[in-house]
Input
Amino acid sequence: MKLYTFFRSSAAFRVRIALNLKGLAYEPQPVSLPKGDHRRPEYARVNPQALVPMLELDDGTRLNQSLAIIEFLDQRYPQPPLVPEDALGRARVRSLALLIACEIHPLNNLRALNYLRKDLGLLEEQVNAWYRHWIAEGLAKLEAELTQSPGAGSFCHGDAPTMADCCLVPQIFNAKRYKSDLTPYPMAMRVFEQCMQLEAFDRAQPSKQPDASE
Ligand SMILES: N[C@@H](CCC(=O)N[C@@H](CS)C(=O)NCC(=O)O)C(=O)O
Output
């Protein structure tokens, strides 16, 4: 399999974690977002959404959208499961994953930030404040979910990593990069530290990718 990825892309990071947890080998195909490689016609032809990640299977089939890719991997390679079997567990894991992937990430992705900078003329410090605002909003909700629900264990759901943890860890990396205050989220940070003990998460982190740079 080939994974179209960018070292700092948190959506690609989610899929890298899932592939590692499943023990699946893949060939990274770096797509530089700062250079705009994802907008070039060659890439847009293969991925009409012009985003990373994209997973290309050995038969040439291409999949995009990180959560759809992770659910595909989970069905095709069921061990270890990343989405629980039971209906309530599935709903809870998807809800936590979507809280990050839909309620935080789209407000802070590159094209949203570039629109603030280039089209609306915001200063860099204003853009950074925007970024931290949506992280704080989203992580506060996540923290409440983790502390109020009996479903949480040493990971977001129970005592093994799931798709929710695949989303949580990259989001915390982004928060750290933008120097967000993470002290209000002790439970989320405990889960983060627990995940980072695992080789599958550690190996997927931005600084360990072949295209990593400053
Ligand atoms: N919902 C998509 C989000 C994908 C996405 O926004 N990827 C970012 C990198 S993390 C990207 O390609 N951004 C390019 C841009 O914003 O122009 C997913 O989960 O795969």
In short: The longest helix spans residues 124-148. The domain at 87-201 is CATH 1.20.1050.10 (Glutathione S-transferase Yfyf (Class Pi); Chain A, domain 2). The first strand starts at residue 2 and ends at 5. The pocket of glutathione is lined by residues 9-11, 33, 38, 51-53, 65-67, 101, 109-111 (CB under 6 Å).
